[in-house]
Amino acid sequence: MKFGTLPLGDAEGAISVHALRTAGVELRKGSHLDRATLDRLAAGGVADIVAVRLEPGDVGEDEAAGAIAAAISGPHARPDPAFTGRANIRAAEAGVLVVDRAGVDALNAIDEAVTLATLPAFAHVSPGQMIATVKIIPFAVEAAAMEGARAVCRPLIEIAPYRLRRVAVISTLLPGLAEKVIAKTLRTIAARLEAAGATIAFERRVAHDEASLAAVLTQVHEAGAELAIVFGASAIADRRDVVPAAIAAAGGVVEHFGMPVDPGNLLLLARLRDMSVLGAPGCARSPKENGFDWVLRRLLAGLTVTRQDVMGLGVGGLLMEIPSRPQPRETAPVTGRGAVVVLAAGRGTRMPHAHKLTAHVDGAPLIRRAVAAALASKARPVIVVTGHEADKVRAALAGLDVVFAHNPDFAEGLSTSLRAGIAALPEEVDRVVVMLADMPKVEAGLIDRLAGAIDPPAGALIAVPVSDGRRGNPVAWGRPLFGELTALTGDVGARHLIAAYGEAVVEIAVEGEGAFLDIDTREELEALEIHEIAARADVDAGPALDGMQAEDA
User: Fold this and answer.
1) Where in the chain is the domain with CATH 3.90.550.10?
2) How many CB atoms lie within 10 A of CB 43?
3) Of 102, 165, 281, 329, which one is least surrounded by beta carbons within 10 A?
């Protein structure tokens, strides 16, 4: 292939290298130059042109790209017709992309004119999705290079269609594991399976002990499950732990425990006769992609996953920075301090005839009670996020030592108030307790307990109050998660982050209703006031009643 600048008189039959626009002529890159085109260029004042001319044996870009794409496309991979030196290859079915890495490298090493790019090996693909592209960089491939490419061309990429359909999901149970955690896990797994055409055919819940789990594994296998996924109530810590021990007791074999992918380290790969078994790491409860997905997809496609396969996932296995990852033990002691953010920007739409937060309960505005509890704690500063009727909120808190942070976007939802509150925190604050302004029975002691439970060097980044397996408010957050909080959008809080970072959660046992009572309606406000008045009356009457009882005695 000859390349260079040609006088227009010598350019007939050549190929234009660059796009060119001049009076009355628009020439595209790669256009074949005929006499009529050259005459129009000359009339427009063009004297010469950068062009290439093919030589005997050269293979044009489209012909070369099409031939190579057809040769390397294996089962369920379909090449498109080549255009401008490119031939895209698409998936004909949903499944997992299987790539011959050595073959791809060999093809790309033949000549710089020939390139092949693919999606990552074992990626999930949908029908019609582009999985690879062959691109010829110049306008032709020389004969010798084309022969070299043909010599290494064989099916290099194919799709392994998803074929497993019946999946068992088993959850082991311990006291304190909330029903909503299991429900969220099932929804997340169902969505993963749906993308592969599979379903949860069997859903079982069993005590977190070896015998019970072994019995259920045997049961679902005999019922026809092709894959079993076990979510332990407690993370697998050793090959001798409950989940692997139960698999062995059922007659199965643990093939590998541990994974050089983060998140996903604690994955367990096993087999019970012809049924694969996955001991799921905690991150599999989250919809975010993690190492669990990498192994699950292969199994659903019927591919064998070996110990060597798992151990080879380390390069590229750091999927994201994990805020909950404990830091080295030699990390310096925490020197930061805690703060409180009180969210008071909402419109209170369920109490339309009054501004809820400034409505009085037993002589004081509702929000003043919440803020007073925050000020009675050790945390500083106390930041109040305002929005709807901000002036009324400020007036209700007159004289209190608080910092106000206004959220002009409060109508867009709770996430905007979280962002405003986090943005207002001083740099030295390493933890924050996020309070709702309509929770009048939260006490200062609870705020201090929550803030004190945060220990970033140990990976404890979230602290929540819990009673009988139910989680309440407020919630304390460590600084490594501040970025996640500010990334939230819409009218949602941060509950899904608690699920996503389950291993970073510290549960603080509480009694009473303080962490669970919020006021949304006029009826709830009136009921609270009646309760407060009655409680005060009981206290005032206490000494007199004691005296009467003593006198009667």
Assistant:
1) 337-509
2) 12
3) 329
Looking at the structure, give the CATH architecture of the domain made up of residues 166-311: 3-Layer(aba) Sandwich (3.40)
* Contact in structure between 228 and 198 (CB atoms under 8 Å): no
Residues 12 and 21: beta-carbon distance below 8 Å: no
Which DSSP helix (H) or strand (E) runs through 204? strand 199-207
Give the Cα separation of 300 and 309 in Å (integer): 16
Reported as half-sphere exposure (CB side, CA atoms, 13 A), residue 328 has a value of 3
Say which residue the tokens 């993308």 belong to. Answer: 195
Q: What angle do CA 414, 417, 419 make, to 5 degrees?
A: 115
Instruction: Return the closest-CA partner of residue 246 out of 222, 220, 214.
Output: 214
pTM, full prediction: 0.63
Whether the Cβ atoms of residue 221 and residue 205 lie closer than 8 Å to each other: no
What Cα–Cα distance (Å) separates residue 297 from each residue in 163, 193, 334? 10, 9, 41
- For 61-161, CATH number? 3.90.1170
| CA atoms of 87 and 68, how far apart (whole Å) | 9
CA 286 to chain centre: 7
The string of pLDDT tens digits covering residues 252-293 is: 999 999 999 988 999 999 999 999 999 999 889 888 889 999
Chain mean position to CA 384: 30
Using CA atoms, how far residue 338 sits from 317, 448, 505, in Å, is 34, 9, 17
- Indicate the SS3 state at residue 477: strand
